Structure formats: structure tokens, C-alpha cells
Amino acid sequence: MLPGPPFTRASFPVLVPIADRRPFDPPTRVWTPDEWSRIRTGLRAEAMEERWDAFVEGDRMFVQRSWTGRGYYEAEFAPCGGGHRMVRAWAEAGGADIDTRHGALHAAHLEVLVAALLLRDPDPAPWNRFTRLGGLSALYGRGPGGG
Questions:
Q1: How many CB atoms lie within 10 A of CB 99?
Q2: If 50 and its partner were Cys, which of 45, 76, 116, 135 is the partner (CB 3.0–4.6 Å)?
Q3: What share of the chain is helix, strand, coil (3-state, %, to 5)?
Q4: Radius of gyration from C-alpha coordinates of the chain
Q5: Domain count, the chain
Q6: Sign for the pseudo-dihedral over CA of 147, 90, 17, 63
């Protein structure tokens, strides 16, 4: 399916900037020109069970929670050999420091969100990396490795 008109800031009724913005090392994946084009189209949740919205302004991608509009991730892209890659990224830290382990966890989660939701890529590798790092339990501070 070809991408439609891109979603923009104006596409979302409520957007709340990241309140506690903390940097982390972004995923190292190179996104092809076709993938970058699709990423720039963004994502808008169509049903209540869909949790994420995303849009791009210039070279910045913003990932928001669909129910609240609350900012969760921001990533800066730059051209590189073969496409684009994220060169800087920030997460909503919720008052917690993002250490190296949590930075890797956020990088893996951000890659999953982009690959699985924006690109509809069925490759399980990003999800497998994320779960090896502790997955959702670790990200949200529940269970082993979380907190």
C-alpha cells in the first residue's frame, strides 16, 4: 500500500510534549529510502486498542500515546549511506534516570514501534531483541529487570 498524506501535528487533537526528556543511544538500523518515506507518513491509531501515534516534522519523529497524546519518544534522523538513521533520541523518563541498560531497552522498543507499527514489517528480530532485554515488564518497571 502506498502511503497517504502524512500525519502532522495538526492531525492530533491533543499533543503533550515529553515532560522529562532524557537522551539515549538510538537504534543503529539504517532505514531505506522507501522506509523513510513511509516513516514520514506517520501513524494514527484507528481503534482504542492501538496505543501509538507518530508524526515527523523535518528530520524529527515524535511518538505519542494515542489515548492521552502524551509524548513518549522523539528521534532525530539524518541521511547516511543507503538511507536514513536515527542520530539522536529521547524518551519520557518519568523522573527516572535512563542508564545504559534502559537506554538499550528504549532503543529496542523504539525500533519495534517503527518497524512493526509504522512499516508493518513482520520481521521478528526487533521484537526478539526487545524481549531479550526484558521487554515491556522491564520498560514499565514490573517484573524481572524492571525498575
A1: 10
A2: 45
A3: 30, 30, 40
A4: 15
A5: 1
A6: negative
In angstroms, rounded to a whole number, what is the distance separating the alpha carbons of residues 41 and 4? Answer: 7
pTM for the full model? 0.89
Domain with 93 in it: 9-139
Take residue 125 and report the three cell numbers written for it. 528480530
Average of per-residue pLDDT values in the chain: 88
- Indicate the burial class of 62 (C-beta count within 10 angstroms; 0-12, 13-18, 19 or more): buried
Residue 144 lies inside a defined structural domain of this protein: no
Q: What kind and span of H or E run contains 52? A: strand 52-57
With respect to residue 39, please indicate whether it lies within any of the assigned structural domains. Answer: yes
Q: Give a yes or no: residue 121 inside a domain.
A: yes
Residue 5 per-residue DSSP state: S
Query: From CA 33, how far away is CA 71, in angstroms rounded?
Result: 26
User: In this structure, is residue 45 part of a structural domain?
Assistant: yes
What 3-state DSSP class applies to 128? helix
How does pLDDT run across 28-78, given as a tens digit for each residue? Answer: 999 999 999 999 999 999 887 889 999 999 999 999 999 899 999 999 999
